[in-house]
Amino acid sequence: MHSPAKKKAPFGTRTTAHLFVQRYQEGAWGPGRIEPAAPLALAPLTHALHYGASIFEGFKAHRQPDGTLALFRPLDHLRRLNRSAARMCLPQVDAEGLARRIAELVRTDAAQAPSPPDALYVRPLLFADGAVLGYGTPTSATLIVALVAVPALFKGGVRLRTETHYVRAAPGGTGSAKCAGNYAGALRAQELAHAEGFDEVLWLDAHERRWLEEAGGMNLMLVRGGALSTPPLSDTILAGITRDSLLALARASGLPAEERPISVDPADWRDVSEAFTSGTAAGTAHIREIVHEGRVLFTRSEPGPLARQLGERLERIKFGLEPDPFGWRAPA
Ligand code: PMP
Fold it and tell me: CB under 6 Å to ligand 1: residues?
């Protein structure tokens, strides 16, 4: 028997005062409402609790210099929610309409949004809410959007190790969907890695256990031969919005950027000079060390120059401290 790790402070335990709630039944969405945050009433046979048809998103609203809040790439996140929904047989949302309602929710609870560098995390959750024991395609669903004030994670950098026993995602599976089961299935490996003093695991491909894919809640970014480099997307990797943003920022500033596989073979790491995480919650945290089967594949004590430059530029764009040529900020 094992007990859950207790040493880490939980990340985000209180929502703001309101939720956005919308129900889908008999092929149509009902009117969504902004309501006082309250526990959900769920039937014991709720489909999502038994069979796992539950997906989510995560993005942030950032306090701007004029005091207003701006959401970072909300439509791209809601389009990804729709791709996850398609994989899980959940209904599609109207991404534009929902983005407007989320902006309204953020304005409603704006006073509860923290100051930079902290931010307001936006968590849309869509799950099959039908009370039915029979296993089949969901016919009704609940969408909620909750807001949680969060700090920036992993300020001191992270140590990662590859996971050689457990697998997160296999070709044809659900790895590229942001579905609840992916995270439940990853917990045991994360728990073991924490017990060994690592912050997260780096997942390997299921077939050869040779190719690095991503970490539990973030993509992997390297500086390799002077280029920004990240493993290519597939159906076993979540297409991170931060990943896409960093590739775009690098290319726009004339830095070569490549999507290229990287293996656990030390020869692949000879020209890797920097490594960092890429994700909404984790940001671009410095990776201090990567260990594979007890051997150090990569180590660097301080963040490298490109990681710093790209990470800071992205944060400045999010917080409205420099122009946004990409159209990523959406006023709330
Ligand atoms: N991979 C996984 C498995 C994740 O959960 C996340 C967080 N959404 C990411 C990567 C990073 O994605 P994003 O940059 O869109 O937050």
Answer: 58, 214, 217-219, 238, 240-243, 278-280
